[in-house]
Amino acid sequence: MTTAEEYAEFGSREARGVSPTYERLSAAIARDDALLALLDTLPPGKRQPNLLFGVVRWLGGPVDDPVAFHDFAVTHWPAVEAELRTRATQTNESGRCAVLLPVLAALPQPLALLEVGASAGLCLYPDRYAYRYGEHEVGSGEPVLECAADGLVPPDRVPRVVWRAGLDLNPLDVTDPGDVSWLDALIWPEHAHRRSRLRAAAAVAAADPPLLVRGDLVDDLPALAARAPADATLVVFHTSVLYQVPPPRREAFVRLVGELPGHWIANEAPEVLGYGGLPDPPSDALHNVLALDGRPLAWTRGHGQAMSWFA
Ligand SMILES: C[S@@+](CC[C@H](N)C(=O)[O-])C[C@H]1O[C@@H](n2cnc3c(N)ncnc32)[C@H](O)[C@@H]1O
């Protein structure tokens, strides 16, 4: 896929109906030869829309007007390029806990949670957030995570978590304002509710910071898993991570996680783990697949805003 095609596809498949600002911007960049030429000087993984938009926002540039965006990005290209080369899309969305919760709550309690690709670790606190599945409410406090759930009976209680740890190539620190402002810049412009959710979830995590280890989800997983208490159910999980991992390493990860005790929860794009025989998704919007121990269970939306359980 060319960079122009990547931007056009992002606009029509990811941003459409979710962020009109980014839909407009990506369509304009798909036709912007000057900016595309600059992006093409970067390694492929550094050209992606989410990263470019986040960097420009983080540098204080405009994203609501494609012409102003172009002018800012081209004029400030050395600074934009430097940030693109060093930063990564590490969006940390606590809302994804709403799709993990039904599976976590059904496992033998208590749980030892180990998240790979944890970013700042905000998905490590499913027991400290509140949830609303339609009329059904679970948990207490802030943030309140809303999820339109089809085909399942939502859990009655949050899980009991006695240990939580995360592994990431570049862990972010919720107590560092610079890291939190990068997480904020990665949130799409119109998503004020996600911005307040980030602040609320970061406050929960900062009050009791998680154990976050810098490392790779294959090379460093066994050592971290060995630190989990033996009298709790180990749950290795990941959401929106494996698309960033090359296929041979994904396969190594799947083999490795299968050898560990406990359970494995994946919430990833359907093509990433290559499940066969999935039912049709509920709509044309991008969906992830929630799976327990390799068995697909539900379609889920990217930020945890909806899930549709398989019959
Ligand atoms: C898009 S973020 C998702 C963060 C979090 N799981 C969530 O759903 O909010 C993906 C994270 O995976 C991490 N990551 C990518 N490849 C990794 C690897 N090989 N080992 C560990 N972490 C990795 C990135 O650094 C990034 O923080």
Structure summary:
It is built from twelve helices and twelve strands. It has helices at 3-15, 20-29, 33-39, 49-58, 66-75, 77-86, 97-106, 177-185, 192-207, 221-225, 247-259, 270-273, and strands at 111-116, 130-133, 136-138, 144-146, 148-150, 161-168, 211-214, 233-239, 263-268, 287-292, 295-301, 306-309. The longest helix is centred in the middle third of the chain and has 16 residues, at 192-207.
Topology of this protein?
Layout: H1 3-15, H2 20-29, H3 33-39, H4 49-58, H5 66-75, H6 77-86, H7 97-106, E1 111-116, E2 130-133, E3 136-138, E4 144-146, E5 148-150, E6 161-168, H8 177-185, H9 192-207, E7 211-214, H10 221-225, E8 233-239, H11 247-259, E9 263-268, H12 270-273, E10 287-292, E11 295-301, E12 306-309
Parallel strand pairs: 1-6, 1-8, 2-4, 5-12, 6-7, 8-9
Antiparallel strand pairs: 2-3, 9-10, 10-11, 11-12
Helix pairs in contact: 1-2, 4-8
This protein binds S-adenosylmethionine (SAM).
What would you note in describing this structure?
The protein has 311 residues and is of the alpha/beta class. It has twelve helices and twelve strands. It has helices at 3-15, 20-29, 33-39, 49-58, 66-75, 77-86, 97-106, 177-185, 192-207, 221-225, 247-259, 270-273, and strands at 111-116, 130-133, 136-138, 144-146, 148-150, 161-168, 211-214, 233-239, 263-268, 287-292, 295-301, 306-309. The strands form two sheets. The protein has a nine-stranded mixed sheet. The protein has a three-stranded mixed sheet with strand order 3-2-4, with no helix packed on it. Helix 4 crosses helix 8 (177-185). The protein starts with a helix and ends with a strand. The relative contact order is 0.13.
